[in-house]
Write a structure and sequence with these properties.
This protein has a seven-stranded mixed sheet with strand order 4-10-9-8-7-5-6, with helices on both faces. Strands 13-14-17-16 form a four-stranded antiparallel sheet, with helices on one face. A two-stranded antiparallel sheet has the order 1-2. The two termini are 29 Å apart. Helix 1 runs antiparallel to helix 12 and helix 3 packs antiparallel against helix 11. 40% of the residues lie in helices and 17% in strands. It is an alpha/beta fold. It folds into two domains: 148 residues, Alpha-Beta Complex (Aspartate Aminotransferase, domain 1), CATH 3.90.1150.10; 254 residues, Aspartate Aminotransferase, domain 2 (3-Layer(aba) Sandwich).
């Protein structure tokens, strides 16, 4: 064992990953007769007991609709629901709970913003995205551009998988109205220099949105320090339940934007002559919300807050370092995306093997990864591949699981060789 391996093992023991794993009951099962090795966290992370218990307790003890119930259960549900909003506000360091909007997830949050900004766009305006964006941060802008006559312009990516800052600087101009980029790439794991990019954009009066879906599982953002106008993420990647996400938006911009959907909760008064809108954040929350899911998301954030975040990040980095060490043990394997600043995500290919075959054969050995284009077809086109295999690690993964992944990949490679 070399010095780096010893250091990584020490880091994992200091974080006590084995104790952490006991908080995640799904990890103790077997798949295809093998202990589960779950390395598909970038698609959806697993849930700790704290989240499962919080949602169970909500349904057992306080389930009711929120805000207008004139009874005890309604009060309990409302208190838990709005308490969850405060938890998210604190997590993001937003200035007010009025700036925290519940959505179904990152995708709906971006669609909400894109539609809300449509009145500000006209023919000839430009919307900057990047070649590494998830489709959810490309397609909504294309739809709005088609409606308004604006144009979606992609920032180039370097071969290492970093946003090309020369490309960004050359594209940022007086026609730019919106900058919408990923805080972290879902394919490459690249942590983008968003603070610097936002500062440059704001100097030109450009509205900024960050897709934080892949960032929040690994580190805690500060929206006031970033000074972004909008920040979006999904609960299920943050160890919380599916079906709920968050849009943070600066209050002044949210006040200007029209409602995204109509119905209950988002109204102040309805008549056939005129309907007026509710105050923030309810103006954008039509209908009965995902109450239990909000409670679950808050429990996930509280769970993460109970951990030593610095130790957690160090443990995750140790996983990626060990994986990078082992790449050379698999003939024909190469990594897609070698940025200097990364979260623990490894997209790769093996010469002569289709990604889906790699995924299927790993599953037979109990190892779960993601294969395909990862909802990032423009990025696949850039690298000239139909797709990749992707192992995305979380703080509950172990160095032993990294070893198992590469032992399994060696078997796969030998089988096809």
């Amino acid at each position: 064992m070399n010095d780096l391996s010893v250091a990584n093992t020490t880091i994992q023991k200091a974080f006590d990953v084995e104790a952490i794993r006991r908080d995640f009951p799904i990890l103790s099962q077997q798949v295809n007769g093998k202990p589960l090795v779950y390395l598909d966290n970038g698609a959806s992370a697993q849930k700790p007991l704290a989240v499962l218990d919080a949602m169970d307790r909500y349904y057992r003890e306080m389930h009711s609709n929120v805000h207008r119930g004139a009874h005890t259960l309604g009060d309990r549900a409302t208190t838990a629901f709005e308490g969850a909003r405060e938890t998210v506000r604190s997590f993001l360091n937003a200035g007010s709970t009025q700036e925290v909007i519940w959505t179904k997830g990152t995708t709906e949050a971006i669609n909400l913003v894109a539609n809300g900004l449509a009145p500000k766009l006209k023919a000839g305006d430009e919307i900057l995205v990047s070649h590494m964006e998830h489709h959810a941060n490309i397609v909504p802008w294309q739809m709005i551009a088609e409606r308004t006559g604006a144009k979606v312009v992609p920032i180039q990516v370097t071969p290492a998988g970093e946003l090309d800052q020369d490309s960004f600087n050359s594209l940022l101009n007086d026609r730019t109205r919106v900058l919408a980029v990923a805080h972290v790439s879902n394919v490459l794991g690249t942590i983008n220099p968003v603070a610097e990019m936002i500062a440059q954009a704001k100097a030109r009066g450009v509205i900024t949105l960050l897709d934080g879906a892949q960032a929040v599982p690994h580190f805690q953002p500060d929206v006031q320090a970033l000074d972004c106008d909008f920040y979006v993420f999904s609960s299920h990647k943050l160890f919380g339940p599916t079906g709920i996400g968050v849009l943070y938006g600066k209050a002044a911009l949210l006040e200007e934007m029209p409602p995204y959907q109509g119905g209950g909760e988002m109204i102040e008064r309805v008549s056939f002559e005129r309907t007026t809108w509710n105050v923030l954040p309810y103006k954008f929350e039509a209908g009965t919300p995902a109450i239990a899911e909000a409670v679950g998301l808050a429990a996930a954030i509280d769970y993460l807050s109970s951990l030593d975040r610095a130790a957690m990040e160090a443990a995750e980095n140790a996983l990626l370092e060990r994986a990078n060490q082992l790449v050379e043990t698999v003939p024909g394997m190469s990594v897609i995306g070698t940025a200097k600043q990364k979260v623990p995500v490894m997209s790769f290919k093996i010469d002569g093997l289709h990604p889906s075959d790699i995924g299927t054969l790993l599953d037979q050995q109990g190892i779960a990864i993601r294969t395909g284009h990862h909802c990032a077809m423009p990025l696949m086109d850039f690298y000239g591949v139909p797709g990749t295999a992707r192992a995305s690690f979380a703080f509950y993964n172990t160095l032993d699981e990294v070893e198992q992944l590469f032992t399994a990949l060696q078997k796969v490679q030998r089988l096809f060789a």
